[in-house]
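Appendix B, record 7
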Amino acid sequence: MNVMHLSAECYPVAKVGGLGDVVGALPKYLCEAGLNASVVLPYYDRKFVRENTFDLEFKSSIKIGTKIFDYSILKESSRKLGFDLYLIHIPGLLDRQEIYCYPDEIEQFISFQLCFLDWIVKAEIKPDIIHCHDHHTGLIPFLVSHSSSFKSLASIPTVCTIHNGQYQGWFGWDKVGYLPGIDLSKAGLLDWANCINSLAASVKCCWKFTTVSPSYLEELSYNSNGLEKLFQMEKNKGIGIINGIDTQVWDPENDPMIVKNYSALTADTGKKENKKLLCKEFGLTTNKPLVVFIGRLVGEKGADLLPEVISSCLERYKGKLNFLILGSGDPATEKNLKELSSKHKKHYGVYIGYDEELSHRIYAGADFLMMPSRVEPCGLNQLYAIRYGTIPVVHKTGGLKDTVIDLKNKNGYGLTFDDLTIDGLTNAIGRALDVYADSGRMTEIRKKMMSLDFSWDRSAKEYIDLYKSLITN
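Structure tokens (predicted):
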């Protein structure tokens, strides 16, 4: 079975969040299961691309609106990611360093999708499944069904995975001319709220759509930034599949990025060594529980609550714990978090930015990971924490609700809370301090967490079953 994945992100080529992690892992596990899975990305002028060899696979030109663009398909030559990786290069359009936030972003991602379809038509490539990820590739299900330019692809099943339904790829009808050969009698399939909505078009036109957790599928029907009615109507077309993690990359027994490797049986001593050096790096004391946050400093992640929560906890619990923050995002939140450094020396550390290696060291050295997310379609950070024996403290939403069982349950291994306020998170951290005070219980919880299977082996099988059902039908 030949499955082609299209995405704006793929770790380690280009990553902003969980989308990159998923697209960098799922195809590898599909290939290990016997499928021929590949990934197609826009070309990015980034370290991975500069340091690896790519062969010219195909070259052509395409008309987008009134302009003609030359494009190239480049293929990574060594298959080092465990799957075939293709980059679409357009000089001046798909050749930039950053992934998002350019003023012509609509043109970027439309050109990416059109070049992909133009390539596989002209090269007579017929995948068994075209798997689209988020709105950046959301026009493809419509185009293969309702554009005369790509009618030879109409019988190919399309799957769309929604990693974050808040971002939908909106643009005005004045740009409909970018889409070649479309049947304007089907224009309603592109429209939502009087504009072209790429995500809505994908949900309407794909054969099946998936969300990255069962709970997120349910949440989209009442919280999806204006698409609630659409998800209610199309609910039977959707399936929730929890993301996995790449257990080869995230493996405390063999992780080259951490100071001391450890297993479930040696987690107490291994984490102690990692914590010691991590605390030394940030000027923290090692004999107190270490509570961390890793992620984007944005409202979706509840990061705006962190400055007051940290101050509240250090005051209420008389400095009996330490905090460490890794992330970047909203400038005001970044500023507030930086200002805490002078107020809470020896109890608080912060690194503003993105550092993959540091994130591994934090998971290995931390005792608790807090995730006060307002929206969390699946969440991977809690799964990384579980893998590294770090207890997650999470708001009960989306995939966090599906993957973290509270310690009040006999099968529990994490801490959950419903009240997403400063007091709610402060109280949850108070529960964490009570757990930490019982070293025997901490050891037991770590062993239980680290024995859980959140690998892509399990999730990939669910995708394979989905693909087979579409081909069979």
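Remarks on this record: DSSP finds 16 helices and 18 strands in the chain. The longest strand covers residues 54-64.
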